[in-house]
Amino acid sequence: MHTLSKKEDNKEKKEENTAEAKTAEEITESVEGTEEVQEAPAEKSELELAKERADDFENKYLRAHAEMQNIQRRANEERQNLQKYRSQDLAKAILPSLDNLERALAVEGLTEDVKKGLEMVQESLVAALKNEGIEEIPVEEKFDHNLHMAIQTLPADDEHPADTIAQIFQKGYKLHDRILRPAMVVVYN
After folding, report:
1. Cα 42–chain centre separation
2. In the prediction, which pLDDT does 140 show?
């Protein structure tokens, strides 16, 4: 009987070892399955991080591209303005000479030859300025603070209403839409 019991004990131990082995395999599979589950979110988060970085890089690229376009647009506008107003400094230097010619022509007692010569010089200067886009500011009867500078006022009356120009002291000039020098005028007030 004792031998039988040893065989039964061995058989029971083998069954227990087999059961333990099966349980160990199940636990290992379970742990491995858990690791796969744990790795899946880690891979997913890495993928999400990569997508976020790609989106961030794309956003930065689009911003840089837009900034470059803005820089190019501003440079083109600046270049066009420089071209459009390139003769501004020259005009400002020439205008006093033109004023002096007009004053010289207003002097009485000039010979016809001198007067004719001064008029020719004046006409050539005005034509050269006009070719560069520089024009005299038209002086209408109504005072416009954007185009005129009031240097003196006179009292208004029935014949001369307020804010009308009485006299022009110095002509004003503009280059395209930019005022080079406002016209200096006397205004009824």
Report:
1. 45
2. 79
